[in-house]
Amino acid sequence: MLDESTYADIDARLEPVDARLRARYPGEPATRQPVHTLYVPADLYGRGVLREYSRIVLSQVKEHGPLPFSDEVNERVLTKLATEPVEDLRIDFEDGYGVRPDDEEDAHARATATALANGERPPFVGLRCKSLEGPVRRRAIRTLDVFLDALGPPPPGFVITLPKVSHPAQVEAMVVLCGRLEQTYGLAEGTLRFELQIETPPAILGPDGTATVVGLITAAQGRCVGLHFGTYDYGAALGVAAEYQSLEHPAADHAKSVLQVAAAGTGVRVSDGSTNVIPVGGTAEVRAAWEVHARLVRRSLERGFYQGWDVSPAQLPTRFGATYAFFREGARSATERLGRYLSRRSAGILDEPATARAMAGFLLRGLHCGALDPDEVPFDRSVLESL
């Protein structure tokens, strides 16, 4: 019995909301997300570093192996380490590099940019500058300026990591800085993208009780592609004793849950933090550290964090091993359930469209990282991407 004016009135009321929701929550991109980010101090980065990492970790596995996975997964890990040992590399001018004289940091900024421009590089790469906090702000800006001057046009997958973000105004300033750098170096608008490193309590909870990270994403004006959790800075800021600072501490889990909810559907991806337990020493020590790292990587994956930090190349074998095991173990169920969903069949589990999207995303991630081969997934990639 309703006339057309009712439909028109409801549409008119909600169209602005529809537009805001579409802009804010475009959904999870179907593009590849690296499974990790490896931080390399700027003074240690140079041409040939990827080949050297490959050699080192393969030698370590040979000496201290086998890895704590199935033979099938271990074989895939060895292939990965030989062909693509690093998915995402960050040249570090912050905590891993320290505070140095300006001329020394200038020289390293030029040298690393030149090496990046002329050498082999992973699918994703970038640099971490110092923060925009007062004492190091000018140094952060200058390092980006010098680096881009020597680099030329950034390669695909290039991203800047901005650490110790605590307030939306710092993100707004980063947006302005990226625009100025693009104008200075003749780059297309929007070329420079950044990740926000969340490692201070004010970045999680503001003085008014709101989730600050929501404002951080808004302030980025579409340039933010990731939120990276800083395990140890965050734990220390809360007063957690050093022995108990961990990416599985309840305080860390709370912070990451806030990030996960704030970023859901926005296209901004969340990365877990790192563990400082490094596989070094004798075989017993290396294997023990591998087991810790593998368990923590698996824990993150089960909680929906598909990327994490690695602070040492020695962690690469268990990063890939735990990731491959996770996707391979879940692939059969995901393909069967998705097949039933697409053919409108039921077998005791009634999956909804949202679950189908999650299963398609799971399989795509497995394909992207090499855990699954195309012939192991009975769906065209275009079908998965459309879901």
Description:
The protein has 387 residues and is α/β, with parallel strands linked by helices. The protein has one domain (29-329): Phosphoenolpyruvate-binding domains (TIM Barrel). Helices cover 51% and strands 10% of the residues. Helix 2 runs antiparallel to helix 3 and helix 10 (283-302) packs parallel to helix 11. The model has no long low-confidence stretch (mean pLDDT 95).
Please give the structural blueprint.
Elements (H helix, E strand, L loop, with lengths): L3 H21 L11 E6 L7 H16 L6 H13 L4 E5 L9 H17 L5 E5 L8 H15 L6 E5 L5 H17 L9 E5 L13 H8 L4 E6 L1 H7 L12 H14 L5 E3 L11 H20 L5 E3 L5 H27 L10 H17 L11 H6 L1
Helix pairs in contact: 2-3, 3-11, 4-5, 6-7, 10-11, 11-12
Q: H/E element string?
A: HEHHEHEHEHEHEHHEHEHHH
Radius of gyration, rounded? 22 Å
Describe the sheet with the most strands: 8 strands, parallel
Q: Give me the CATH architecture, please.
A: Alpha-Beta Barrel
The tally of helices reads 13
Strand content: 5-15%
Oligomer: single chain
Q: Estimate the global geometry from the Cα principal axes.
A: globular
CATH domain class? Alpha Beta
Provide the number of structural domains: 1
